[in-house]
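Forwarding the complex inputs:
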Amino acid sequence: MESNFDLKDLPFLKLLREKGLKTAVLETVDDVVLRLTPGLNVADLRSMLRGDPPGRPNPRLRPHADGFWLHIRPGYYNRHITGLYPSFRLGWLSTYFFVLEALTGIFLMLFYTPSTRLAYPNMLQILSNVPFGQFMRDLHRLGAEAMVLFVALHMIRTYITASYKKPRQFTWVTGIILLFFTLFLSFTGYLLPWDQLAYWAVTIGASMAEAAPPPIMGQFANLMLKGAPDLGPNGLLRFYLLHVIGLPVLTLIFIFVHYYKVVLHGHSLPPEREKVGEDTAKRVPVDERRYFLPDIAASEILWTGVVTLLLIVAVTFLYSAKLENHANPLNTPFHSVAPWYFYWAQGLLKLGDKTLMGVIIPSILLVMFMVMPYFDTGPFRYYGRRRFALSLSMLFITIMVIFSWMGTPYFAVQSSLDQEIMFELAPTEKPGLVRVIPYEELEAAISYGTINADAFREIVPRGTELYHVMEVFARELEHARQVPPEKGGLPGVEGFFTVEQVQPDLVAVNLVISWDDGKGGRQSNEQFVPVHREAYIGSEE
Amino acid sequence: MAENVTPEGTEQVEGNGWRRFFTTLLPYDQRTLIGTVVFFAIILMIGWVGVNEPARMASFTTQYEARAIMRGAALFRSNCTGCHGINGEGLPGVAPAINTPAMFDGQRLAEVGWAGTLYDYIELTISAGRPVMSQPYPQPMPTWGQDYGGPLRPDQVEDLVAFVLNWGRQYEEGAQPVAGIPTPLPTPTPSFTVVGDDPSTELPAGDAARGEALFQGTAPGPDGAVLACNACHSIDGTLGAGPSVQGLLGRIPDGYASADAYVHESIVQPCAYVREGFDCLMPQNYGTERLDAQTLADLIAYVLQVGQ
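Prediction (whole assembly, two chains):
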């Protein structure tokens, strides 16, 4: 069979025959670049990167019309919105964090199995045996927290500049949906390490599902979310699937909708740049235009680089994601809290009924936020004419901060003082004071026998870490003595500190607090705190 | 006009200071410069992290293993000391010593015919328990792993194994003894004449008061360790691992010359007659290793006194 294919017909070879090697190569490269960008040839690209003025018609608008990635970005902005003010790059950074989370998340997925049996050992594996494992995990965790923060700030900025007003109401609605997804993404990811921190923080957060009215709905929602009445293997799998598939896909879709609305309506101008009731974002005079290529793109790449560098410096020197002990459904750690961005909900829950405080009020808030732009239809965007709205937002932020504070253990948590003292000295889920005493000092303290916390000064050498810890111990006991018994004080309380050698390189501190029980007897709280020589090298947290 | 549309940000901006900072872009070439510097800084930082990774991973592993031993120590203190002693020295007649050279030098593995590693042996024994009794320990070890119906998660069993294996380090060849670590009690060598397991041996007159102290575990036996018969045998009819002593006199089977002879045989040869509904779990070394004639007589006197 005769083939009609002839090598000589290849365009490149034809060109080679007609124009010689150099021209053929250059023209082919030019063609490839034109197809990839798409729409910009090598000369356009070079002049763009040099910062030359564009030709007319501007060839740098072609990728917006012909290319996939840039078709959801406007071809140009008004120059008054390209500075730090008014956008503060918060929208772009939110998107950046989403991409960062996706990339670091894919890395972590390679080493993670969503099973209660394997999740925690996998975490240890990531931290101990995967190069860049801790780095990636810290980036993922820090990026998640930062994403929540930046999405929230983006929303606050949009509110303050009144950018949600007509015609951008729906952009705002998709933004609220994205905020909700961001919180939920972060929250579902919180559970995956399957440590005590994860288990109890999510248990607190997810308890709201159960409170949804009426009870049958609450049970159903709880069962749907956790796959069982309590968090277990099914719950972990569901949270994992939501975290890696369900929510990212939904978020991505809404990010595209959100972005498309910016193309459609243009980026809102600073309020003082527009006449009242007008929206001139789309009618940018030619001399006010800032083209996306290369100007805005360069800024976005710059911000991406700067923030990436800051994150990398942070996770290398300053921040390390915690990993507590293996999740233990039978043992609630002292002072368990929800993730910080749900402190406010935990604070609300302390005030009253779970259904009202945990479900009804947050749902009303969510709906109110969504419909807000359709009710706040006043034409003014100037700050001076929105005193009520801005005061309201400041009031709301203040209230959220107060509720968040109320969500922390500092507010309305009933705990006995002996437990508080033990928590300060040797908490179950972090090193605490006793465990980070240098091992050599503990070893030396074996010969001191039982140290009474009120008479340690003659026994423990001054200037040692142990001395400092005993000072804290004595101070706490003194405090507990002074609090009246009806307020939880511990009359006649005494504390004892004994170190014993248990194994090679392993000592144990026996902490005993004993006090009068008010019925003529003594009550006591004892804790056995083993400390290994190698366990807390350089670990202060 | 051409000036204004260039990307360098060369157009005049109103204001200065903060206002200028917030509302204008840096010139294009300055942004390019910063971007380039940042890019190389990122590469350097990642390289720096990469260079330090082996050391970091090793240090994490060391720390983690140390913390596993610590958690194991706390678990051992709250779950295991009741039978294996506070320092793993074992309790005679209850559970064997763990903190002993034989555990780590292969002797124990050889005794039980274990072909796997010591780690696996300890892990399986903790998880699955010891399903059969082994002399002289009448009580089989319970299962501890959740996979076998016990209370501990797999990671907790691993912590316990790490803790137990850490004892082995003091028995390693060339290891310096660590001051302050209690070593297991030496096996007591009986400094008394054992009564033997022949039920027809003549006994001296018994003292029920001393018998009670021995039975209740408040006084030590002749070898220095407590007998504590009450761990398995109640005196008030409560069901234990062994039959209660209550009502004993009323249920002596045929063929015994006296109640005395029946109790005597039941202590020195526990499996000669086993009451229906019970298995022979009782140690069979009381006559041959642990009791002298006076102690046995005292115990019998007490049992007959409460066995009405």
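Chain B is about 45% helix and 0% strand.
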